[in-house]
Specification:
The chain has 607 residues and is mainly β. The chain is built from six helices and 40 strands. Strands 1-21-22-23-24 form a five-stranded mixed sheet. Strands 34-33-36-37-40 form a five-stranded antiparallel sheet, with no helix packed on it. A four-stranded antiparallel sheet has the order 2-31-30-29, with no helix packed on it. Strand 9 and strand 10 (179-181) form a beta hairpin. The longest helix has 4 residues, at 133-136. The protein is globular, with a radius of gyration of 22 Å. The model is unreliable at 1-50 and 591-603 (pLDDT under 50).
Length: 607
């Protein structure tokens, strides 16, 4: 079987369809590193840090004592549900300074007596993790898909929201390393419109009232009585495309400030009864100070909900140029990531696509339009060889330029029966930004962490060992996860944990601009993203050879602005809204070890 070339396809995910059956698609990622507000100085100049030996990523999953294995729960041929997950989300749930990991798992839907649960792994601070799921009380209670963290009650501890097949679940953090299921009390199950297949979600403060609101995506209208399988090629059974079932609505919840949420989907003008959401994330792409909402769909146009500043949104995906590809095709939008990859001060966009179709990068012009530049930046040809899921932009070598990681894996276990050249389990991809507007694939020279194929799905970024390098965790379908330790050295960094006061405590929607020498970079604190996943909310900046930042500027959702000057590199800082002094983050090095003392450093100018 020869796969159809891009020019011959009717839909982007219809790669293997002699009988007209479209492939299942799973959208992968939304990772944010964002453009400028009207900051105090001008646009960042372009300067590349000196080249260095290839950074090596090592698979330390077993060494870290992570024994979780994803259970897809299939019985015979997998269904669309069983190929969708899993996601993974990370946060410091207990406040010890180290980032913990939550893995989402499937369930036995065929009454075979097979036990499966989600897993929370606490970071011990010594390179190992401990499974604390039962003690913490966060096993999930249905077939799990994705997860996000957010401090919705502003008590200083992140709460956990898990998207499931059926009712979603909201776990409130009790601040004693345990959680309580408050889903019904909070009114956040996301089933008001009959949606049962939930996917990507994100916390964000869309009305800037200082409280985190919540968006929960809806996917295919796949129920217990739905068609289970379809066929590809000559009667090879496999899961069905999502359009066999049709779409379902997402839900937007407004945070009432009393521990409950109100469904404002229709009032906010984002009700989409036929949505096929997979990934979602919030970012202020047009720098007007209000968070907008990006929603990637499976086989229909992507949505870009522009915030109208009055509690409502308008979908501007088509006119902005990002809803479809440059040739007008709908995407199998596996991954969305937003980041200023060329350090021009504008938020650019990455969206992956299906096997045998290039992934896409759009360059934002700062005036409301995204221009696709996929071939020009060098990702079109190499990304045709894989089916991409979670990941996105991150600076793995600390040179000040955003690179790109993609978790790969097919959605048809039977694909090799149809085309032996295509594999269900695939090697993940790593692209290095060369600082000239190009991405160079470095997968094969980046260590043994890129040696083993998986059916990769969700992915999250975090500096798990607090060594100044961003590590990667990947959730694999039907397999153990992959924890990739970043072995970079030589370049310098800055890491910031933001704590809101007038703004929401997690500082979601805040922007940090770091200027070091001739390079200016932007990050926005944002939840959700990737594919069914969420990365560390701390903002990380590579500085290349610079030993300090000339300035660090923060624009808070409340409108407060702070700027710090002459900030020393290679430190983990805390910035508290309205406080004039930076302090250092504190880390409990290992169980029973003393904590690193806080230290005042540079003071800020506030506006």
């Amino acid at each position: 079987m020869v796969l159809a070339p891009k020019e011959s396809r009717e839909r982007p995910h219809s790669r293997l369809r002699p009988q007209g059956i479209r492939l299942v698609v799973v959208l992968a990622c939304l990772q944010l590193a964002v453009p400028e507000f009207a900051f105090l100085d001008g646009r960042p100049a372009q300067l590349r840090a000196p080249s260095a030996p290839p950074v090596q990523f090592n698979n330390v999953t077993k060494a870290a004592r992570i024994s979780f294995v994803h259970f897809k729960g299939s019985k015979g041929t997998s269904t669309i549900l069983e190929e969708a997950g899993p996601g993974v989300c990370v946060a410091d749930y207990d406040g010890d300074g180290y980032i913990d990991i939550y893995f989402v798992n499937g369930r036995d839907l065929y009454h075979r007596g097979i036990s499966a649960r989600n897993a929370l792994y606490r970071n011990n601070g010594d390179g190992t993790f401990a499974d604390v799921t039962e003690k913490a009380g966060v096993p999930g209670n249905a077939y799990g898909l994705g997860c996000v963290w957010g401090d919705y009650d502003n008590d200083g501890y992140p709460d956990l929201y898990v998207t499931q097949y059926g009712k979603n679940i909201l776990y409130h953090n009790n601040r004693d390393r345990t959680f309580t299921d408050v889903t019904d009390k909070a009114g956040a199950a996301a089933t008001e419109f009959g949606t049962v297949f939930h996917t990507g979600a994100t916390f964000f403060d869309y009305d800037r009232d200082g409280r985190l609101d919540l968006y929960a995506g809806g996917y295919a209208n796949f129920g217990p009585g739905s068609q289970r399988t379809c066929t590809i090629a000559i009667n090879v059974p496999t899961s069905c495309r999502p359009t066999v079932y049709g779409g379902t609505p997402a839900v937007l919840y407004h945070n009432n400030g009393d521990g409950t949420f109100t469904n404002v989907t229709k009032a906010a003008k984002i009700y989409q009864p036929n949505g096929l959401n997979l990934s979602v994330g919030a970012a202020d792409y047009d720098s007007d100070g209000w968070p907008d909402l990006f929603v990637a769909n499976d086989g229909i146009e992507a949505y870009l909900y522009h915030n109208n500043h009055d509690g409502t949104f308008i979908n501007v995906g088509m006119e902005s140029g990002m809803a479809l590809t440059a040739d007008g095709s709908e995407m199998a939008a596996m991954c969305i990531s937003l980041g200023d990859y060329d350090n021009t001060g504008n938020l650019d966009l990455y969206i992956s696509d299906f096997q045998d179709v290039p992934d896409h990068i759009w360059r934002y012009d700062g005036k409301g339009f995204f221009e696709e530049v996929s071939e020009a930046v060098g990702i079109a040809l190499p990304t045709k060889a894989v089916l991409s899921f979670g990941g996105g932009f991150f600076d793995y070598d600390n040179d000040g330029w955003l690179d790109l990681f993609i978790a790969n894996g097919h959605v048809y276990p039977e694909v090799e029966q149809v085309s032996p050249a295509i594999h269900y389990k695939q090697i993940n991809s790593l692209f290095r930004n060369d600082g000239t507007g190009k991405f160079v694939e470095v997968t094969k020279i980046s260590g043994e962490g890129f040696a083993t194929p998986y059916a990769g799905r969700g992915a999250a970024f975090a500096d798990f060992d607090n060594d100044g390098n961003i590590d990667v965790v990947v959730a694999n379908n039907g397999d153990p996860p992959l924890l990739l330790q970043n072995g970079a050295s030589g370049n310098h960094f800055l890491n910031f944990k933001l704590v809101g006061g007038k703004s929401n405590r997690d500082a979601m929607g805040a922007r940090i601009k770091v200027k070091a020498g001739a390079i200016s970079q932007i990050r926005e604190v944002a939840g959700g993203g990737s594919y069914l996943s969420q990365s560390d909310l701390r903002a990380h900046f590579g500085l290349g050879p610079s030993l300090r930042a000339d300035s660090v500027e923060v624009a808070w959702p409340s409108g407060t602005r702070q700027i710090f000057h002459d900030v020393a590199a290679d430190k983990f800082y805390v910035i508290v809204e309205g406080k004039d002094a930076l302090t250092l983050q504190t880390f409990a090095r290992a169980p029973g070890a003393s904590r690193v003392e806080k230290a005042s450093v540079r003071r800020s100018d506030r506006k």
